[in-house]
Amino acid sequence: MTLFASIVIVIAAASFVALPFFNAEPVADGAASPGPRVLRTASERQTFERQKADAYAAIKEAEFDYQMGKLSDADFKLVRDKYAAQAIEAIAALDAVSVARTRQPKDARRPPRIAFCPICGRAVPPRANFCPACGQSLQEAVA
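The structure corresponding to this sequence follows.
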């Protein structure tokens, strides 16, 4: 019985670990995209944010290595250009999302603003999440 339970646990763990490999979209390495992509999910946005941050970090590290004399001029230019292209691709994809969001109607982008607390009636400052007098959550009042 314990052998059977052990096998079931190992199979479940292996399938859990292998699941992302079967759901991933194949990406052609070095393939140039025709234009900025429109990101559909938050995970894609996080991926490009991470790609941008990693590219910036790699460029800073290459600049440091170049100043320390560890990289030649040609190697530094090659590394910098490679990571600059990755950063530009990520920024273009993130900008496409920003442009798509600004085209939405204003009512769809912002939640309604509450001018007065529904509990105590005191005026509420703009962008406040809680009433400064009674501490009532204003997010619950909107819903």
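Residues 37-110 form one domain.
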